[in-house]
Design a protein that fits this description.
The protein is mainly alpha-helical. It has a domain at about 60-130. It contains four helices and no strands. It has helices at about 1-15, 40-90, 95-115, 120-130. Helix 2 packs antiparallel against helix 3 (about 95-115), helix 2 runs parallel beside helix 4 (about 120-130) and helix 3 packs antiparallel against helix 4 (about 120-130). The termini are far apart. Bound molecules: zinc ion (ZN). Zinc ion binds next to loops.
């Protein structure tokens, strides 16, 4: 008799969320950790999965935007360098060459930095670009 009670207790305490394996209380409809409606209707569960997929695709979109912004930084950096070199050749303007090469280097560095801190790097690049136009 005692054995049986012990078993029952264990059963209630090992209820796990099917999505993230966090232990849940018998009375919980939603998982406390990931919000999955373990005891909800199949429609509620489908909704949860749809939301998860949407979150994922949003993240991919953001990654794509960061990537194209990073490419823009490289292009602007390259362009700035080319302008500096050509104005040095055409007009003998060494000051422009130096300024543009420095700027070009900053753009490329910001491009590399944006793989680690996309928002900060891209914002700095944008501000720099606006200021020097
Ligand atoms: Zn969960």
């Amino acid at each position: 008799m005692e054995e049986k009670e012990h078993l029952n207790l264990e059963q209630t305490s090992t209820l796990l969320c099917s999505q993230c394996s966090t232990s849940m209380n018998e009375s919980d409809v939603f998982c406390n950790s990931c919000g999955f409606p373990e005891k909800g209707t199949s429609r509620e569960q489908a909704k949860f999965h749809a939301k998860a997929v949407m979150k994922k695709s949003n993240k991919n979109d953001a990654d794509k935007k960061v990537k194209s912004a990073r490419n823009t930084l490289y292009v602007v950096g390259g362009f700035t360098g080319v302008v500096g070199v050509s104005s040095c050749f055409l007009a003998g303007d060494v000051a422009v060459l130096v300024t543009n090469l420095i700027l070009s280097g900053i753009y490329v560095l910001l491009g590399f930095w944006s793989t680690k801190k996309p928002l900060a790097a891209l914002l700095s690049g944008l501000l720099l670009y606006i200021q020097w136009l």
